[in-house]
Amino acid sequence: MWNDKPDARAGALAGLRVIDASRVLGGPFCGQVLADHGADVIKIEPPMGDETRGWGPPFAGDAASYFIGVNRNKRDISIDMTQPAGQELLARLLADADVFIENFKIGTLERWGMGQDSLRERFPRLVHCRISGFGADGPYGAQPGYDAAVQAMSGLMSVNGEADGQPLRMGVPVIDLVTGLNAVIGILMALQERGRSGQGQFVESTLYDSGVSLLHPQLPNFYLSEKVPQRVGNRHPNICPYDSFETRTTPLFLAVGNNRQFATLCKVLGRPELASDERYASNALRNKHRDDLRDTLVALLKAHDCIEISQALINAGVPCGPVRTIDQVVADPHTHHRGMIVDIDGYRGTGSPVKLSRTPATYRRAPPAFAQHTDEVLRERGIDPDDYAAVLPRQPAV
């Protein structure tokens, strides 16, 4: 396996101490982003382990790919925090931490005497980030949240799918991932402000808020027109032609955003006069006559090889791309050139999309085994693991 040694280079967040007590996806993804950029992230798992360890197949050892995908660069301990000694140990770990990430059920920390007010009083410089489904109050306050359910409740599913089909869940857990990214943004903002005030603060990132925030341009369209947005398949609600088109081989997605690009598209396809057709002279007119335009483009593209015509269009300045499968993306030389596939000593992961010129992301630790670093982490802080043996599981409970 991967050599478990820190990289010699210091990332942008080197020196930042993070306690990540979150599970599943949004919180762990947030923690991994911070860890990739140099933060020392300590993942705390409950005695039964993060449930995503079992979300497979596929598995590598006893960890599913789902867990592996969002937990690299972290050190791992397990604490039974339902017991007073476990809560005391958590508090000791927070004493020298900069950031605390958690997604406990609303009210859990309060029952442990570690609510917002208590944490602020005991650890005034701590940035406490809570990830939840809906927040602590309001009509849905404290209600548990799951990506797919919030995709439904936030309206995302209502605009995803074919026009004559049923609402569809998006193929990736987009709300969980964006919630994690919003948590990263909030944490970094709070740390920036702490540099001025010397004070930490509470950061909240919820699935519901994140889902609603993604509804662009559907919400702006609704605010202005008061018409409820509908499903339009691969079509864009505001731009035309912006859709998937069949070719002789595989589908091609055209993303034509202005009149110049449309004129170029028509020229490359051998029909330059279409650009001056009064039905297609502007984006608004193309939207009005989008069905006729689609029929014309389908007829023109069906004789072309997808890769060949897409390259010709791209070379001419028309945004487009072949609709590819995951294996094709992984095999693409550009994916590797951009550092988006990480291969180190038997570990393969997805690279960081955030590129910094002087302090780039680094990949230093494999996703950890359960409680792998318990003794190391505690002894660094002058804590004898034997003093807390009753709340330090060494194997996940079944």
Automatic annotation (TrEMBL):
Entry keywords, A to Z: Transferase
EC number of this enzyme: 2.8.3.16
Primary enzyme class: transferase
One Pfam short name: CoA_transf_3
Molecular function (Gene Ontology), one example: formyl-CoA transferase activity
Signal peptide: none
Highest taxon in the source lineage: Bacteria
Protein name as annotated: Carnitine dehydratase
Gene: frc_5
